[in-house]
Amino acid sequence: MINFTNSQEFRKSHILFSCYFVFMLDPNKLRVYSQAKELTNSVYAITKKFPVEEKYEIVNQIRRASASIGANIAEGCGRTSRADMRRFFHISLGSLLEVKYFLELSKMLQYLTDEEFTNLYTNANSLSKQLISFIKS
Questions:
Q1: Residue 43's closest CA among 62, 57, 56?
Q2: Distance, CA of 75 to CA of 88 (rounded, Å)
Q3: CB 62 within 8 A of CB 106
Q4: Options 3.50.30.40, 3.40.640.10, 3.60.15.10, 1.20.1440.60; which CATH number does 24-136 get?
Q5: Residue 70 CA: distances (Å) to CA of 9, 86, 93, 95
Q6: For the chain, what are the domain ranges?
Q7: Pairwise CA distance, residues 67 & 60, whole Å
Q8: How confident is the prediction for the chain on average, in pLDDT?
């Protein structure tokens, strides 16, 4: 335990603490994080009208995948190295591809109208481009 009555120990611990968190980002300041939350919200809203028998199938899968996008962005922002952060952004991208698959499947099964599918898929594509751009930066 650090004795903070000793100012030299306090300075050492403060420097360590400051250096440790130097790479962390606030996900709420990232546009990609906001878009991920918006996509998740849209997915939850649209899947409320899916057939009851899909509650534990497509609905569960697409909701979990969409929530995973933002969750992994947030977790990546909490990492202390760019490499770790990129790894979580890659995981987010994988979840986004899963969402896109389930959107296509839902359209094929006629659970989504053309307009609903187009809106969600366009948002997913936009988010995909942002994630890829962030990973490459």
A1: 62
A2: 7
A3: yes
A4: 1.20.1440.60
A5: 38, 14, 10, 10
A6: 24-136
A7: 11
A8: 86
Q: Which residues of 54-85 are buried (b: 16+ CB within 10 A; e: fewer)?
A: beeebbebbbebbbbbbbbbbbbbebeeeeeb
Low-confidence residues of the chain, pLDDT below 70?
1-23
What pLDDT was estimated at residue 23?
Answer: 57
Give the type of residue at 64: R
At position 132, the amino acid (one-letter code) is I
Q: With contact defined as beta carbons under 8 Å apart, do 47 and 117 qualify?
A: no
pLDDT cut 70: percent of the chain above it: 83
Q: What is the biggest distance separating any 2 CA atoms in the chain, rounded to whole angstroms? A: 69
Q: Is 122 exposed, middle or buried (0-12, 13-18, 19+ CB in 10 A)?
A: exposed
Q: Which two tokens stand for residue 17?
A: 């603490």
Please tell me the predicted confidence (pLDDT) of residue 27. 86
